[in-house]
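tool=predict chain=A
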Amino acid sequence: MPLGATAGPPGAWAGEELAADRAGWTHTLSEDESAALLDAVQRCGVTSGAELAQCEPPPGFLGARLEELCCRVRAALYRGPGVFLLRGVPVEQWGSFSSATAFWLLGTRLGRAVPQNKQGHVLGHVRDAGGDASDPKTRLYTTSAAQPWHTDSADVVGLLCLEQSLKGGVSLVASSTAVYRHVLARSPELAETLTQPFVWDRKGEVPPGCSDTFDMPVISSAAGRLLSLYDRSFIDAAVKRWPGVVPPLTPRQTAALDAADAAATALRLEMVLARGDVQFLHNHNVWHARSAFSDAPGERSRRHLLRLWLAAPPAEAWELPPCFAQRYGSVAADAAPPRGGIRCEGVPLCAPLSVADIA
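tool=predict ok
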């Protein structure tokens, strides 16, 4: 029987359904909540990115009002649609450092921060840093190019918008469970292909003891749930970077990925992240993508988002199939260090906060 052929779990949704019922997954900070968050930032007392990377405030540090909000976010992420949009962080008034600290404090109430790249960044920067989108080793978040449908290599991804672009940069999200069921209903053989391994490239970010590539299906299951790990740019990169070692995709594999991408586009929810918006997504059941963006022709865009990758608290963490260890290092909910992220030998964790640190 195909994965998910029986009744599906909560969290399988179409974008139009989610857009029509925003109360469970959106919230705008009130003045009192903003004041409480700024107070927490000031009490936190960090003065550098190095200090921020080590900051682990205890439960209750944010105060009752914000702790209640974080409970809502956790419920939406781990037991609901897997999406939450928080609006109204006053980034223009607070500046980038206090805004980054506020984002960190909120995110670390949802999980433990894990590194996002071979530099060990636990606070990442999503901006046009001049990366070459045509180079298969390039992580596309360092460019202004469109990002295809994908998940990140952690339980949860969070984004805080510091600056918008003049054009583009639309955030797209889709339920991977709904995507798989859409493909299954129309082409069972292509749905079956999505549950079989594809070769992924690590784009030069190779953890100790690992090879340059790994095998991973797009759709897996564990504990009665469908789960997904997907990024077509990493699959395409494996073929481009290792010719003669990694075979080209078969016509059926290509058709399966095309069908999944088309389904995600058909089922998508679109949102434009404005300054001060915070988006959290549960990677195991939500795909996301981004349209290309620009400001003035020939110039790098000002668009700038901060990013967190988070390992879910053990009590909330979904059970993962063993194959996820290829990318997550461990599938244990209580792993030490926390599961997920990209860990390269000898690289300390850091939270760069200046453009000079990330260019």
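The chain has one domain: 15-358. The chain has eleven helices and 17 strands.
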